[in-house]
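Sample pair:
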Amino acid sequence: MLTPMDALAQSCERSERRLTFHADDEQGAATWRKTLRSKLAELSGLDRMEVWHCQPKVQEDALEDMGDHLRQRALLQTAPNYWMPLYVLKPKGERPFTPLIALHGHGRGKDDVVGRAETEEEKEHVRRLNYDYALGAVRQGYIVFAPDKRGFGERKDETSNCLLLATSAILMGMSVIGMHTWDNQRLIDHIAARDDCRRGPVGCIGLSGGGGGTLWLAAMDKRVGAAVISGHLAVYDKGKFGCICNVVPHLLEWAERADIAGLIAPRPLLIESASQDQCYSRERTLKAYEHLQRIYEVSGVPDCLDIDLFEGRHEWSGRKAWPRLKRWLPSQPG
C-alpha cells in the first residue's frame, strides 16, 4: 500500500508540465521565456503586488570603516509602511562601482553573508557554510547589497516565520518567494538611482534559500546581468522541494525549477553543487542541469552556462564564482 507521500509523488510524476521547455530554436526559446515568465508572475502572486507600489524611500545609518571596506546599514521602503533592512558594503576607492546583490538563506539573515558574527556558534555557522560571500564580493571590488528577507534577521518575530508567512500568502493567492522577489526588484530600482553604482546590469548570488531568491529574481528581472545559484537547483522529488518558502501553488502543473532557471538565458549563470549536499543532492542537481543545458544550447549561448561541482556539503564554494563574475560582470571597467 502506498504512503500518502508516495501516492502524491506518483500523481506528480504523471502530471504534465504544460510550459516545460520544448523549443527547437532561438525564436521559440524567446517566445517560451515570455510565456512562462508571465505565468510565473501570476502563480507567485507577483503580478498582484503592483498595488504595493509606493514612493521609494531609503534611510541610511552612518558608514562604518571595516578596514578594507565600508559598511552601512539601511532601510528601504518596498511597500506602503513596509521597510526592508539591508547592509551596503562599499569598496574603498573611486566610485561608481558595479552593483551586486547577495541573498541569504536560512539562518540569521544578512548578518551571515556579511560575516557579522559575535558568538562562537555564529562564527562556526558562517565558517561551516562559507557563508560570508557578501564580504567576498566587496573584496572583489563590487558594491554589495545584502538585504534581510521577510521573516529573517531584523524582520524575524513570532508572527513572521516561513510557515506562517507562506500559509497566509497562499490564502491570498500570493507566495513568500513572490514577496521576496518583489522586495529585491525594488532594491534594483534603488540601485539604479544611486550615484555610487555603475549604470547597467546587476549581479546576484546566493546559497540555499538565497539561491532560490537568486533563481527567481534573475528569472523574473532582466536587469540581473549574471547570477550564481548555489545549493538550490535540483529537480523536485517526493518531499524534497526545500522549505515551504519555495512553494508556489500549481507550479508543477506548469514548470520545473530548471525551467525557471532557463528564463535567465541568454544571460550568464553559474550553478554550484556540493558532492555531499544533504538538501539538494548532486544527482537531483545534475538532472536539472541537463535540462538547463538544453535551454542554453537552443538559446544559442551554451558558453553562458557553467557548473561548479565541488567537494563539500551544503555550502557556498566561490571557486568558479569569482572568476566567472569577473568575466561576465567586471567589477572594474575594462
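Residues 21-328 form a domain with the Rossmann fold fold (CATH 3.40.50.1820).
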